[in-house]
Amino acid sequence: MRKLLVILFLLLPVCFLLAFQKENLRDIYSRPATGWPKPWVDEGLSWTELGPLPPGPLSGKEDSLKDIIHLGKILFFDPRLSASGKISCASCHQPQLNWTDGKAKAVGHEGAMTKRNSPSIANTWFYRRLFWDGRSRDLQDQAFAPIISESEMASDMPDVMIRLRRNQNYRELFKKAYGNDQIDPDRMTGAIALFEKTVISRKSRFDQFLEGDRKALNNAELRGLHLFRTKARCMNCHHGPLLTDNQFHRTGFSGDDVGYYKLTHLDADSGKFKTPSLRDVMQTGPWMHDGMQPDMPAILEAFNRADQPGIRNNLIKPLGLTKKEKADLLAFLRAISAPAVDFFPPVLPE
Hints:
Order of helices and strands: HHHHHHHHHEHEHH
Number of strands: 2
CATH superfamily of the largest domain: Cytochrome c-like domain
CATH topology of the largest domain: Cytochrome Bc1 Complex, Chain D, domain 2
Shape: globular
Number of helices: 12
Helix content: 25-40%
Strand order of the largest sheet: 1-2
Radius of gyration: 23 Å
Distance between the termini: 89 Å
Structural class: mainly alpha
Largest sheet: 2 strands, antiparallel
Strand content: under 5%
């Protein structure tokens, strides 16, 4: 009996603390983020506090660059950049689908299936490297690659230049954008990249919460936020305003794809892929680099178990999340996902 009383006495502070946290979770997270509980991030790992959606890189500059941006928008939607004349950048990055295509893998030239999922282009200006495997250093370099990829748009760049230069309307658009009607690959991809820098997520309910609307998150979403920061260990890889560490990790979903290794040729990087931003995550499935995960609850359970073959990642550990906790975490992922932007494709030159 005495032993039981001792155990109960020792457990009492823990139970009290848990009850206090549960009852006061909204009060705790109603403070500025600087006063939030410290996230469960492994020692020595750098991280950035969650924050509202930042302004894009062209904020305050768009008016002076509007003609180049307009040209880039037209080029982004023009299938004449492809060999078949049927595929544009927007074929795989559709605004009504949060700039994805809703497919497991991108479909390219003559119906060829690529081996990777089409990620959203929203907020891509934030990434240090582009593509799932990081092979492009910036947006302009990235814009060049799909056009000449045999499995995507399958064009020869000289042929693309001929098609654009023969078009009087394009010559006028380039002249208006750049001051003369010279058309070359650098100007073309530069305009596309500049347009992509204007593609930014809409504010989510989580942004509204961060900006002071403490009713923007319901109780389940608030519990999910706390789990995201603590027990679920999400902030080891997904932190900061864009919810990504801008790094490459092996998560056990790579299959035979060596990913980042093709860029670095380091054995330690085999099977690593870029950490995607979780902004709008619930609007951009199916998920993972190969699009083979159509079910977010199943993904959460896989990370909960941490038993995927070939993980080799110290950041991924068994979590012990309950069914209710996984539901709360899923609710928070919905709260950081905003609907697609209202976007009207441009009229293409005749």
